[in-house]
Amino acid sequence: MKMTGAEAIIESLNNEEVDVVFGYPGGSVLTLYDALYKADFKHILTKHEQGAVHAADGYARATGKVGVVIATSGPGATNLVTGIATAYMDSIPLVAITGQVAVPLIGRDSFQEADMRGITTPITKHNYLVKKVEDLPGVLKEAFYIARTGRPGPVVVDVAKDVFAATIDYQYPNEVRLRGYQPLYEGDSVTIDKVFEELRVAHTPLIFVGGGVNLSDSSEALKTLIEQTGFPVISTLMGLGCIAFDHPQFLGMVGMHGTYAANMATTECDLMLGIGVRFDDRVTGLLSEFAPKAKIIHFDIDPAEINKNVVAHLRVLGDMKWSIPALSGRVQEVSGELKEQVRAWLEKVRFWQQEKPLTYPRDTDLVMPQAVVEKVNQLTQGEAVIVTDVGQHQMWVAQYYGFRNSRSFLTSGGLGTMGYGLPAALGAQCGLPDQTVVLFVGDGGIMMNCQELATAADYNFPVKILIFNNQCLGMVAQWQRMFYGGRYSHTRLKGGNTDFVKLAEAMGVTGLRVTKPDELNRVLDEAWATPGPVVVDIQIPETMDVWPMVPSGARLDQMIFGEVDE
Amino acid sequence: MKHTLAVLVENKPGVLTHISALISRRAFNIESIAAGYTEEPDTTRITIVVEGDEMEQEQVVNQLSKLVDVIKISDLTAVESIQRELALIKVKATVNTRSDIINIVEIFRASIVDVNRETMVIELSGDGTKIDALCQVLEVDHGIIEIVRTGKIALSRGPIPAKA
Fold it and tell me: Which pairs count as long-range contacts for B24-32, CB under 8 Å and 24+ apart, including other chains?
């Protein structure tokens, strides 16, 4: 069928069953936007390209589908960079279609020209520059395939302006043939036997789950394995939700702001099954002393993760959809014996849990951020999609919201991108219109993409936006308090003139405020009863710290606990 | 320890960008890199010499393998292989010194590919240490004006190709 390159892109997106794209028009993509005018799927116009890419990311995390973002050449495309890097670090499937200047102008420093292929090479799973219209259908087919298969990730398709207008006899390929890319789904069953042997002789084993379990939608299979073995379980930030927080074997998050029980269990375990984790420095603390007594068995779909940070005693390569049930199949018959084997160990970890649970001062006349998170947990019964920005509030949410479901916690874990939260929440709400989506964000982070409040209002995305307003850049200030002699270099926002209620209202969003603890329940109830997007400016204490904390470069059992006046 | 890797990649634009960006991002110690076409027109073969311990070496192979355009990597360090590098050396040469240079060139089984009144250009292929040795002799006795080296290329002995 004869059509233009722009129409071929729309047709290819239809073939990939794309139901929404996020984007922002501009000179190089005018022809593409002209074709979008007639497209059947939705286009969400954000206020900034960075908003569009984070929204596509939030959509992808919440739905498990590939997020699609469109931006024009030059500044439009470079505004995607932070969002692409965010998605890359957390293995989120995205396809970014960017306009490029016309082929004869490439390389001449033309108006709005930027080398997107060069710029995004280190932060994409793969990228393309399309200079011939006949390459378009194959490239898009490959882009979606690469983005969603194996270890997911972002793919950039940079398309020269004249390609959009050129004519093509369109045919979408049925399959991709890539000599250098064959994702590995089923690993070696002999390894599973070896893992099984290790389980049989372990006395203090620990299951350590991460984002890979959420990404592969394997939480059900994981639950089976966990319950068959009776082993205690810890999670990374990105793994939260893949096992219910109140599961009796779950010890909570591990690492810098992890629970005492999770960090102690890591230090004492003799066998660690790391499933879909990458042993990030925020998890391991001092790497050489991480899980010092343990044999580590690493489950991952990406062979390059094995032995990158910690040396694995055994590697189980392949999709967790294969590896977890495969191990489960072996474990089933000895389930009773395994549980017996770890009885004493479970008592020990339960003791740690009771000895030093997460806690904060409750009896104060200040609005405690942890109490707000707990209140939201009650309001939503742990069933909402929770989105955060980055900083102290992110850690409080990780610690105190009781996650129950896979894909219910959207946060920039790897890159730690401030400004991620608001647009990501809009993308999640767009993908899951019937779900309650709650955004927790700091007074610093909200300002990094606050323009997207207008997008929330324009599309009436009913996101509950809770600003933890401590009038400072809390996490940085905490480090300054702890490690820099309390010199608050450029982290105090106090005395600023921004009124978040007015800001919300100016953009067409309902604005509410909480200043005292006795207002919290009433205002949150009001927020939940308000249709459409709502901002709640919650004034929390200025000098709250996130506890416990493993200082950067210390061992996990060298946690510091804050002073808590009960 | 040094490892010599034969990396087969798609012969497409941007592949070298991907490889060099990866090396830079992961901070790998690359000693040399040499690329060229192969018996298959859609495949380029890159020989990479990487310095590092076993873990670093494993990471280089794993991370390179992740690149979509990388088809196959084989480590030629562990197998019997022929390893060569080509160098062109421009050396100062007067009428008086030419014969000494010719002697040196013969000893090293190098060849002279250009001569004029002030200089000679010498071509030598071999392993890196041989080239280093020639350069040292020429530099001390005659003075080198400039050197260009290709970086190492390597091919395994026996019938099995790297792509297998």
Answer: B24/A122, B25/A122, B26/B59, B26/B60, B26/B63, B28/B52, B28/B56, B28/B59, B28/B60, B28/B63, B29/B56, B31/B2, B32/B85, B32/B149, B32/B151, B32/B152
In angstroms, the separation between the Cα of residue A295 and the nearest Cα of chain B is 17
Shortest distance between the Cα of A107 and any Cα of chain B, in A, equals 14
Rounded to whole angstroms, the maximal C-alpha distance in chain A is 73
- Identify the residue whose tokens are 């990228």: A127
pLDDT over 60 (residue A29): yes
Q: What is the number of other CB atoms lying within 10 angstroms of the CB of residue A548? A: 19
> Which residues, including other chains, have CB under 8 Å from residue A479's CB and lie 6 or more apart?
none
A565 band by pLDDT with thresholds 50, 70 and 90: very low
CA distance A342 to A268: 13
Alpha-carbon span A212 to A278, nearest angstrom: 9
At B141-153, the pLDDT tens digits run 999 999 999 999 9
Question: Under DSSP, is residue A443 helix (H, G, I), strand (E, B) or coil?
Answer: coil
CB pairs under 8 A between A and B: 50
In this prediction, residue A563 carries a pLDDT of 67
ipTM value: 0.87
Interface with B, mutate which of A91, A121, A279 (most B CBs under 10 A): A121
Contact A121 B59 (CB under 8 A): no
The type of residue at A41 is: F
CATH superfamily of this structure's domain B82-153: ACT-like. Chain A, domain 2 (3.30.70.1150)
Q: Are residues A303 and B65, on separate chains, in Cβ contact within 8 Å?
A: yes
Average pLDDT for chain A: 96
The arithmetic mean of pLDDT across residues A7-15, rounded, is 98
| Secondary-structure class of domain A2-169 per CATH | alpha beta
A377-413 pLDDT, tens digit per residue, is 999 999 999 999 999 999 999 999 999 999 999 999 9
Cβ contact B71–A180 (<8 Å): yes
Residue of B nearest to A312 (CA): B55
The partner residue sitting opposite B14, judged by closest CB among A125, A129, A308, is A129
* Active site residues per annotation of A: 49, 111-112, 161, 475
- Per-residue pLDDT at A208 exceeds 70: yes
- pLDDT tens for residues A234-270? 999 999 999 999 999 999 999 999 999 999 999 999 9
Judged by CB atoms closer than 8 Å, whether chains meet at A180 and B14 is answered as no
Q: What residue spans define the domains of chain B?
A: 2-75, 82-153
Partner residues linked to B154 by β-bridges = B83
**Cross-chain residue pair B65–A306, CB shorter than 8 Å:** no
Put simply, the chain B residues between 71 and 110 with a CB less than 8 A from any chain A CB are 71-72
In CATH terms, B2-75 corresponds, of 3.10.450.50, 3.30.70.260, 3.90.1170.50, 1.10.10.60, to 3.30.70.260
pLDDT in tens, A483-494: 999 999 999 988
Identify whether the C-beta of residue A99 lies closer than 8 Å to the C-beta of residue A29.
yes
Q: Does A306 touch chain B (CB under 8 A)?
A: yes
Say which of B14, B58, B68 has its CB closest to residue A178. Answer: B68
Say yes or no: B17 contacts chain A, CB-CB below 8 A.
yes
Section A365-376 average pLDDT: 97
CATH number of A189-355: 3.40.50.300, 1.10.150.20, 3.40.50.1220, 3.30.420.40? 3.40.50.1220
| pLDDT at A461 exceeding the cut of 80 | yes
Residues of A in contact with B55 (CB under 8 A): 307, 311
Cβ distance A179 to B10 less than 8 Å, yes or no, reads yes
Evaluate the omega torsion of the peptide bond into residue A104 and state whether it is cis, within 30 degrees of 0.
no
Check if the beta carbon of residue A413 is closer than 8 Å to that of residue A236.
Answer: yes
